[in-house]
Amino acid sequence: MRNPAPVILSLLLAAAALFLILRKPETPQEKATDPPPPVAEAVDAPPAETGEDSDPVAASATSTTWPQDKSDIPADPKAVFGSLDNGMRYIILPNAEPPKRLSLRLHIAAGSLMEAEDQRGVAHFLEHMVFNGSKNFTPAELIPRMQRLGIAFGAHVNAYTSFDETVYMLDLPEQTEDTMKLGFTVMRDFSDGALLKEEEIDNERGVILSEKTSRDSVGYRMMQKQFSQLLPDSLLEKRFPIGTEEVIKTAPRERFVDFYERYYTPSRMTFIAVGDMDPAVIETKIRETFSSLRNPENPGSDPDMGSVTSVEGLKPAIFADKEATGTELGLLSVDTHTPRIDSKETRISRMPLSVANSILGLRFDRLAKTEGSPILGGSASKQDIFNFVELGSIDLNVADDRWEESVPVLEQEFRRAMEYGFTSAELTEAKANLLNAYQQAVKSKDTRPSNSLATAIAGSINDGRVLTTPETDLAIVEAGLETLSAEDCHKAFVDFWEGRGMHLILTTKVAPSDAEETLAKLYQESTTQPVDPPKKEVLASFAYTEFGEPGTIESKEEITDLGITQLKLSNGVTVNLKPTDFEKNRISISTRIGSGRLTMPPNKVGLAEFAGAVIEGGGIGEHTVDDLQRIFAGKNIGFGFAVGDDAFGLSGQTTPEDFDLQMAAMTAQILHPGYHPEAITQFRKQIPMLYQQLKHTSAGSMQEMSAWLRGDDPRFSFPKTADTFLSYTVDDIQPWIEESFTKADIELSIVGDFKSEEILPSILRTFGAIDKRPAPEELPAEVRKVAFPESPQSKSFSYESKIAQGRAILIWKTEGIRHNHEHFRRLNLLGDILGDRLREEIREKLGASYSPQAGVNGSTALDDFGFMLTLSEGKPDDIEKLVEVSESLAATLAKEGATEDELDRARKPALADIDKNLRDNGYWLSNVLSGSQQEPHKLELARNRKSDVESITLEEINDLAAKYLTPDNAIKVTIKSEEGVQTAE
């Protein structure tokens, strides 16, 4: 089950993204990966700059040994571990998904912690510089060379720098001789081939400063303050990776050379290759490429991390900023990390506290839903950061500014756990969910994507974890859970917290002058109140498994070339099925119901967002969301709800063994929406945070612009004040929702690891058994219309913030995407070409914006709604210049056209992504199956997608540029932060 607590927090992002996701309509939605098992510590993204949750002994930066050499845990037998004479290590892991592809990672055990005082920011700066001129590539050559081989900058090649590591990532779309040669040459040049020319360093300074500007936020500044106060004697608080503005602006070339030569050394490097390849071939290439690397005579040493100061008793700490999005309250224990070998005993010994923390987190989330609760949710955790500091944390998300009411909640739930521990029902639920996560990892292991695996391996290098198989992880977890008792969890929780000094931390917008004294007083007063043992919950069974007489199949069509089966059931429900082997033991489901946002009741701005939160957070019939979490513990049942532009969407993911229950749950949600009051309570509690973010970040301006581009149509707008949201009740949405849920057309689409003949009985017993549904009806034409702004014109938006940031946006109206996908394919390539010119001019030459973008957007629900746009972030004083440059680049493209080489460099990565998407369940579900019976042309679009992109001519691209990218079709938009500006109320 998806936890509904974050739903409202995501509304703002959804509202802003309504307009400005530079999405390509042919690209699938981002695919969720398997939830990473806690022991395996798999990740699918670079770790946050604050570190990862781990507890092993890291191998020495100059060691050629591996964690398994000191452990009783066996490494993955398919993995090849090796080292070169110069000390460089490598890991090669054959992996079949996706076919023919290869993911390379170069891990360097050096980050911002290794910097001297006058190098603060150089480690991250160097990550940029290796792309700006090397032994084999001039600054102008590298990215175009990659693009011609189907490798897109950002999407397929990227890097990140953290406190203790720098990782370069390169995903090769094929393993031809040219592609392999370029891939290994690039990685070798990153290792020791960067030229670090003075003029290139100077050119890049603006890019780094722009990145610093774009990443600046109140949250980031608050984190820096917290590090400074809680770890005052450590190096961590003085070495945030982005560095200082002074160093970025003035550091001479020799400071870069010093870091590069002393820390980019083979003894600190681990090369990782994961993919559909012959390990012997890759091992030979690694040895040929990197054996000649040399270690310096005076290599850099590991830093003195300083010391960790633990407090005694209870020490309050206040962090306040008027722009803070929300209020948080927590207990934090800070202590020195104690290294431990990664072994079976170590992993099992961590489980009782980990399970205890997960139970306490669930208690907070469920307590948040009770009437009058001042909290939105909470969590408990233990983290070990960079093998240096151990953090124990119990945190609450506080509703609005009700922190004084929340202090007793924090203290008493903490004390309840300390005094009484946990119930057997809580333990059973937690164990079932933990065990299920590991079991599913085993079942899906053969279809893990290589890029995710490669990044996970790179992220674990400094943690000293054994690279295990999912089977090994499961065996360890089974051994630990077999004897794990509620008493064990209680003892582990008490052993960790008892006798520790704690920081009592409040993060809020405005704190009174006596906040520290008040915090401590409230906490101490709470300790005098008795607490009762946790209540024992009675576990109910799922109440909705019978829906009447099973339906039958009225018609069936096999679309053999696409592997799709289309059904119409006897009750009018339509079904699309596509069995795949892309994700083992995973089935993805989507349901389209009715007409969604297009038929929203008039003049009820924001009602779609309210409805989405209430339906998703309101449970099913007599079951609350908390009930469902307990009932489905250990099961793979999940569903989400969203009000789409032209349909209500119910979605889910499950496994073959839980498919029948998943179908019953989704059918029950349609027939018996919960509307439980806690969903509305949670929604209302989060609204102040939502509007605080609208007021103090660019998301508010982006949302305003999104509505403006749609003629401020109430269906696509956001309420001006929180009062509108707070006034809505179930009565406002129930007629609208139930009219569709009980009477409108339903289309069910299913993609994944199943056999059609095995799942059809479940479909017929559930969706097939509901009342008769009509065929979809075409809506009146006026429903699909919005008023797009006239051009040319200029428009400005602002928001209140002391952080100096701005956005320069150019918008050109195009034809809409609805029934016009082939046209949009061409616009996509034009957008890529324009985006590449923005990168070259604005980022590389001017250094004025970190990541200028261009793309197209359109609506499959609205008629004639489409536009191309550019976006560049920078300081407010630079925004007009960025608008001017963007308009000039577009006008030149319109007048002079693109070149064949530019088209080739845009097309090749697009074709590589098409091949990849063909093995992506998300693509088939969202872009092909969903809506395909109402719009059969979607099937033809899937058939001719690759050939159509291959057929696109330069003449077509240039005709589109000349038609659309002219100054008289341009809308210039500026968004700026302004200190103290009065935003619309």
Automatic annotation (TrEMBL):
**Is Protein biosynthesis given among the entry's keywords?**
no
Keywords from UniProt, A to Z, are: Hydrolase, Metal-binding, Metalloprotease, Protease, Zinc
Residue intervals of the Peptidase M16 N-terminal domain: 91-212
Instruction: Name all Peptidase M16 C-terminal domain ranges.
Output: 253-434, 728-908
The cofactors required by this protein are: Zn(2+)
Matching Pfam families, A to Z?
A: Peptidase_M16, Peptidase_M16_C
Q: Enumerate the residue ranges of region (Disordered).
A: 27-77
Extract the SUPFAM superfamilies matched here: LuxS/MPP-like metallohydrolase (SSF63411)
According to the UniProt entry, which residue ranges have a biased composition of type Low complexity? Answer: 40-49
Protein origin, superkingdom: Bacteria
The family classification in the record reads:
Belongs to the peptidase M16 family.
Protein name listed in UniProt: M16 family metallopeptidase
Q: What is the lineage of its organism?
A: Bacteria, Pseudomonadati, Verrucomicrobiota, Verrucomicrobiia, Verrucomicrobiales
